Amino acid sequence: MQPHTRRKFLTTTAALTAGAATQAMTTLHTMDKKQMVHHVFFWLKNPVSTADRDTLVEGLKTLAAIPEVQQLQIGLPAGTEQREVVDASWQVSELMYFNSLSDQAAYQTHPAHLAFVKNYSHLWSKVVVYDMQLL
């Protein structure tokens, strides 16, 4: 009776493991297919330089040519009221939309993105990125 119980346990465990792995893969595939938002904030080394700001904006516009980028928006801090929860210390921001996590990953290694970092990183002192998947 012992071997039969053990065999049943091993068979049940293998089936549960396979089911969990399939569910995990399905979840990862589903998550990959959700739209992704990539929001980046730049602090310039010379924050009062409109020339540096405009040069960075020009560089950011080149990223729209990357096929995985579905939409690109570039902005400056809005003149909204000053409140404790509002951070307007940055100088330039870009907001990108991707169709999936894998598209965003492809963007990260795309030659145009790598060239942007190489050619414009001398302008900024700090970058903060917020990535999110839409529900």
Descriptive report:
It is a single chain. The protein has 135 residues and is an alpha+beta fold. The chain contains four helices and four strands; from the N terminus they run H-E-H-E-E-H-H-E. It has helices at 2-32, 50-61, 101-108, 111-120; strands spanning 36-44, 71-75, 92-98, 124-133. It has a four-stranded antiparallel sheet with strand order 2-3-1-4. It is elongated, with a radius of gyration of 23 Å.
Give the secondary structure arrangement, pairings included.
Layout: H1 2-32, E1 36-44, H2 50-61, E2 71-75, E3 92-98, H3 101-108, H4 111-120, E4 124-133
Antiparallel strand pairs: 1-3, 1-4, 2-3
